[in-house]
Amino acid sequence: MSDRRRGLRWTYVALAALMLLAACAPAQPAGTVSQELTTVSFVGYAPGSSTQLRANALAEAVRLAHPDWNVSSMASGGEARLIASRIAREADFFYTQSTRVLELEVQQPLHPDIDFAEATAYRLIMPSARLYVYFFAQDDAPVAAPRDIIDSRYPYQAGVGSGVSRLLLSRVFEHYGSSLEDAEAWGAIHETIVIASAEGAEALQSGRIDIGFTWTSVPNAQFAALELDVKLLPIDDPGLVGMFEELGCVPADIPEGSYSFVTADVPTVAAPQYLAVRADMPDDIVYQVVKAVYDRSDILFAAHAESRLQFSAEGIRAALVTAQRNGESFHPGALEFYRDMGWVD
User: Fold this and answer.
1) Which residues, in sequence order, are bridge partners of residue 130?
2) CA distance 79 to 111
3) Residue 36 — very low, low, confident or very high, per pLDDT cuts 50/70/90?
4) Which residue in 28, 174, 181, 198 has a CA-CA distance of 20 to 30 Å to 316?
5) What is the Cα–Cα distance from 104 to 119, expressed in whole angstroms?
6) pLDDT tens-digit profile of 111-158?
7) Residue 10 neighbours by CB under 8 Å, 6+ apart
8) In sequence order, what DSSP letters do the residues of 145-156 get, joined into one string?
9) From CA 226, how far away is CA 85, in angstroms rounded?
10) How does DSSP classify residue 330?
11) Residues 6+ apart with CB under 8 A from 37
C-alpha cells in the first residue's frame, strides 16, 4: 500500500473516531454553560462606593463558582463613563443609577448621533437597593418645604449634580409653576456639585451652599460621618409625590436616626436600584451568575447588608411588580432561576 493511501486511511479512521465521540458525548445539562472561555464584567460606580463594593462581591462569588471563567470587576469612575462603557459593550453587569425613563430623558439628548435606547438596552437581574431623594436646607434657611422656596422667591445658593439630580430638581420647580431659570432671575445660584460626595458634604458642612439636592442610598457614608446643621425638606405634597411616581419613584421615608440631623422620619421618594445586564447576554450565563451569587450570598451580604432584604423571595416578587409598573423587564435567565427556586410563577 502506498504511503499516500495509508495516510488517507488513517485520516478516515481519525475522523470516524471523532464523530463517534461527539455522538456519544453526554448532553449538556440545562442551566449550564459551555466549556469555552466565558468572559463577564461587573462594573460599579466610583472606587469605594457601595455599588463598587457590591460589584466586587458579585465578581468574587462568580469566580469561586466558575474558576474557568474570565471575571473582572471595575469602577466606571462616574455616570458618564459608565454610560460610555455600556454603549461600547464593555459593561456586562452593572447597577442602574436611575429609573429607565429618567435615564432616557437625560441621556438621549447627550448622544444625538445614536439610538441611545437601543445602544444601552438592558434587562434586570435582581433588586439591590433604593435611591432616596435628599432635599437639604441649612437650619437657618427660611424654608420648611420645597414649595416655600418658590413661594418666597428665596435667593438660595444650591449644590446639585448634573444629569438626573438636576432634572429632578427642575421638575420640582416646574410642578410649582416655576423653573431653575426663574430662580436664577430672582438671585438664586446653582453650583454643579455631587452632594453625595466628599466635596458635596464639605459644601454643606461649611455652609458654602444652603440648599442641596441629590439622591443616594440610606445611609450614605459621606453624610454619616458629619455633624451637619441642616434639615431635610419633606417630599409629602401629594401632587409632588404623584409627579415623582410618574418618573418611576415610590413614596419612602428616610428613617429617624439615619443621621445625627434626622430626628424624625422624613417623607420623601425613592427609586429602586437594580443589578442589570445588557439585553443580549445569553440566558445560561445569566442563570449561572444568579445561581453563583445565591450560593455565595454571604459575600454579597457582607458587602451590602440591604441586599439581604432585596435578594429574597419577597424582594424578587415585589421587584417584579415595580418593574412591570415602570415598563422594565427581568432577564429570562434570571427569571428561570427564580422559577427553579419557587420564588415566582
Assistant:
1) 272
2) 14
3) low
4) 28
5) 11
6) 999 999 999 999 999 999 999 999 999 999 999 999 999 999 999 999
7) none
8) SHHHHHHHT---
9) 34
10) B
11) 68, 69, 70
